[in-house]
């Protein structure tokens, strides 16, 4: 019993780590630029497939992760400059547009990689189990993902909270115009944050594709979870993305185990209650 | 003293805010080492004037020249880098940054500082000792008076050659208003020109070398404080004092 609890806990943590990678970029993009980019699910998918291709060609998993991330940086740059910029900040247009982009990307992926689930091959150094205290055997890959998630979370948090660059991003979230009126080139800052968010989305597709597999519709499955993360945590907050990821990861994992027939309710029920009590999310600020 | 070129020239600017025609031809010139006060009742376009000068709400027509340079079409961050310091209406400190982070932001790597700033944390803390005690506190938790000190200090950290202040004493206790008055006097004595938009008639008269009155989006009166003091009809008509 305790073994099972430990396993579910670790499963929840590894899903949380993946969700954090995807949701942290989404939440920063929104908080800073007020851009609602629903294409993050599609970025996850296309980054995953492209990374998979690179892993197959080169045999290097790390190279695949980097390639997945960088290719999505390029895709996002093109999408932002040619399409999102035309919405001129209208959130409804942005949502509709980026959902449309999601369909286009997903359909393209279906044409290229087909409809069967594909798994990104895990690297040799991440195969097999790790033995954790209490004789808990756990897949090494998912354990390493938890470590990576924690490391990225710590790094992002430190960047955001402790460095001058992070202070500028927070200032931009607080009051974009005033930040600009003090001499900060906010457009350049946006470009940097967008690139970081896109990289994380693409890289998370490769990382997720190695244990959740990539398949048509995976973009929506992961987007919905990421949205719940961001809504629970509060839009625009790194700490919120951390808390939200843990919440969604653990609820999803324990929900499937304890109450499989009500797994959906386990996730959305608490979210609805939270939104009633605290519409801005756990760490979000009221507007 | 030989006449020098004005540091800031606003030449017949017209600005729309959405559909409303707010500035309908404003002209003024700020001389070096001068405090230039803009007076006027609420809703006469004072804040829009500031926003137009700094390209936050660019004028539809007319030009703004700073040290002889036309600012038309220049993005706001480039204007800030000239450098011009802004103390905005409502103070607008970054509430989720610490006091210190608020102050260092104008001199960050992304802020385009090109010369060694004359204003440093030490100098600002010397001017406002209260801020140094609160350096690590979130700016959002400061009192209104402290936030206005922070807003002024933040503008100084931009190391401005011109300081633009939009109602810096709005909603503050008289003792803090006097403190800010003393600060502006000191800055002026150091040779920093100030464009000051004020509702506080007494303060503007005490500080200004030159005064302009805005009404209905136009400059309706320009002159020295002494001349305004002597012009009962202008004061009564445009300011109600």
Topology:
The complex is a heterodimer of chains A (287) and B (241).
Chain A: H1 2-33, H2 40-58, H3 61-82, H4 91-113, E1 129-132, E2 136-139, H5 140-162, H6 164-174, H7 176-181, H8 186-209, H9 218-233, H10 238-258, H11 263-277
Antiparallel strand pairs in A: 1-2
Chain B: E1 8-17, E2 20-30, E3 35-39, H1 46-53, E4 61-66, E5 69-70, H2 76-80, E6 84-87, H3 99-104, H4 121-127, H5 129-133, H6 144-157, E7 162-166, H7 174-189, E8 194-197, H8 201-207, E9 210-215, E10 218-223, H9 225-230, H10 232-239
Parallel strand pairs in B: 3-8, 3-9, 6-7, 7-8
Antiparallel strand pairs in B: 1-2, 1-4, 4-5, 9-10
Care to give the gist of this entry?
The complex is a heterodimer of chains A (287) and B (241). Chain A is built from 11 helices and 2 strands, in the order ααααββααααααα.
Task: Please give a structural write-up.
The complex is a heterodimer of chains A (287) and B (241). Chain A has helices spanning 2-33, 40-58, 61-82, 91-113, 140-162, 164-174, 176-181, 186-209, 218-233, 238-258, 263-277, and strands spanning 129-132, 136-139. Chain A has 287 residues and is mostly helical. Chain A has a single domain (2-277), classed as Orthogonal Bundle (ABC transporter involved in vitamin B12 uptake, BtuC). In chain A, a hairpin with a 3-residue loop joins strand 1 (129-132) and strand 2 (136-139). In chain A, helix 9 packs across helix 10 (238-258). The longest helix of chain A has 32 residues, at 2-33. Chain A starts with a helix and ends in a 10-residue tail after the last helix. The mean pLDDT of chain A is 92. Chain B is of the alpha/beta class. Chain B has a domain at 1-82 and 193-241: Rossmann fold, CATH 3.40.50. In chain B, strand 9 (210-215) and strand 10 form a beta hairpin. The interface between A and B is medium-sized, with 22 and 29 residues.
Tally of individual helices of chain B: 10
DSSP, total strands of chain A: 2
How would you classify the quaternary structure? heterodimer
Helix content of chain A: over 70%
Coarse structural class of chain A? mainly alpha
Largest interface: A-B, 22 and 29 residues
- Indicate the percent of residues in helices of chain B: 25-40%
Per the principal axes of the C-alpha atoms, what is the gross shape of chain B? globular
Order of helices and strands of chain A, N to C?
Answer: HHHHEEHHHHHHH
Taken as a percent bin, the fraction of beta residues of chain B is: 15-25%
**Strand order in the largest sheet of chain B:** 6-7-8-3-9-10
Estimated radius of gyration of chain B: 17 Å
Low-confidence stretches of chain A: none
Q: Supply the number of helical segments of chain A.
A: 11
| CATH architectural type of chain A | Orthogonal Bundle
| CATH architecture assignment of the domain at 1-82 and 193-241 in chain B | 3-Layer(aba) Sandwich
Characterize the largest beta sheet of chain A: strand count, sense, and whether it forms a barrel.
Answer: 2 strands, antiparallel
CATH class of the domain at 1-82 and 193-241 in chain B: Alpha Beta
CATH class of chain A: Mainly Alpha
- In CATH, the homologous superfamily of the domain at 1-82 and 193-241 in chain B goes by the name P-loop containing nucleotide triphosphate hydrolases
Q: Which stretches of chain B are low in confidence, meaning pLDDT under 50 for 5 or more residues running? A: none
